[in-house]
Inverse folding.
């Protein structure tokens, strides 16, 4: 008997797709969504990287420009610093050189032409001519002078006139080195006048620095071969006059609207000094340009031509070295200028001793050195401000 076996199979759904075909249909959709999302994220990431790279490059570029600019500025600053240093060194050298030649020419003239008021008036006259040329050529702006300023400047010019006249009288009577040793006493008179007229109390350091100044001048005076009471007294009086001018000029010219720059202030004082001294020299000494007076000077070592040339050169050097001194004062601090002035005095004393072969003893040299060291210490002491309680 035959045996029949029923093979049961899983029923198929009414609507069915083959598995492979469904996956094939589904994969493009999935690939589309996946690839689309991947492309968007990668695009955003690429944009982010691009923006970051762009920002970084801009930042680096700016940083590099700043570095380059800072290096350029530092190089320019260093260059300007070197130029300013060289300029100051040249101005100090010219200041010292003109001072040396002024003292030499001035002494040579005063030695044979013993009329200090006339010589001083010539020097102020040379300076006045140079000032008018400076203003005419617009080398320096002309001052705008107010009526309220004139009385102050006139008083300063009177002190300027008397101070320079007394200095020339001293130079005609004693050695150049001795006159400048006495003029190292200027700080003493500055402190004294400031205390008497304005009640300014100097510090202990300032007072201490005056001791070697006074002691050195006294020691040099006692041992000076060319000592003369007229020369000594005139040098001391010129210290008093010049420092009175300096102290009062600082006090009067304090308001900004009333001040003039140093060069114009000096220029106006020079012109007024010439107008004051020219007629005074004629009244005091007479007209000393006659052939007899010039021949008398020529008989003592200088002919007429040499005398006139040296008188004009002394006037040129006199005005120019003071003008440069004021120019330096506008570039440096007053203390630096004072130290430079102390060094200038040393240079003038040494050069005059060498040129005129002035006999100098050991004690005299020590006195001069002590006085000049005191001036240097005074300049340093003025730099230290007293502590306020």
């Amino acid at each position: 008997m035959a045996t029949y076996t029923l093979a049961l199979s899983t029923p198929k759904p009414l609507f069915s797709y083959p598995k492979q075909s469904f996956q094939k249909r589904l994969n493009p959709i999935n690939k589309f969504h996946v690839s689309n999302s991947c492309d968007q994220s990668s695009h955003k990431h690429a944009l982010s990287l691009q923006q970051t790279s762009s920002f970084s490059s801009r930042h680096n570029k700016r940083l590099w420009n700043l570095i380059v600019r800072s290096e350029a500025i530092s190089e320019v600053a260093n260059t300007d610093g070197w130029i300013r240093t060289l300029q100051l060194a040249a101005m100090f050298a010219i200041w010292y050189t003109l001072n040396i030649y002024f003292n030499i020419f001035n002494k040579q003239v005063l030695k044979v032409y013993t009329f200090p008021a006339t010589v001083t008036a010539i020097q102020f006259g040379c300076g006045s001519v140079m000032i008018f040329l400076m203003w005419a050529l617009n080398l320096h702006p002309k001052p705008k002078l107010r009526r309220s300023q004139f009385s102050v400047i006139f008083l300063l010019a009177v002190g300027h006139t008397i101070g320079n006249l007394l200095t020339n009288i001293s130079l005609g009577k004693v050695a150049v080195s001795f006159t400048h040793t006495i003029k190292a006493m200027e700080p003493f008179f500055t402190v004294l006048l400031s205390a008497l007229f304005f009640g300014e109390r100097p510090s202990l350091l300032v007072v201490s620095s005056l001791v070697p100044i006074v002691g050195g001048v006294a020691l040099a005076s006692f041992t000076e071969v060319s000592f003369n009471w007229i020369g000594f007294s005139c040098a001391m009086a010129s210290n008093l006059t010049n420092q009175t001018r300096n102290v009062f000029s600082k006090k009067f010219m304090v308001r900004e609207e009333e001040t003039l720059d140093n060069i114009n202030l000096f220029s106006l004082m020079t012109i007024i000094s010439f107008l004051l001294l020219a007629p005074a020299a004629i009244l005091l000494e007479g007209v000393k340009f006659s052939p007899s007076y010039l021949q008398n000077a020529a008989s003592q070592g200088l002919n007429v031509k040499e005398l006139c040339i040296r008188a004009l050169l002394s006037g040129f050097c006199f005005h120019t070295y003071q003008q440069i001194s004021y120019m330096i004062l506008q570039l440096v601090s007053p203390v630096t200028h004072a130290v430079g002035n102390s060094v200038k005095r040393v240079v003038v004393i040494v050069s005059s001793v060498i040129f005129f072969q002035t006999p100098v003893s050991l004690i005299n040299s020590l006195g001069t050195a002590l006085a000049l060291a005191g001036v240097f210490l005074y300049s340093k002491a003025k730099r230290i401000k007293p502590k306020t309680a």
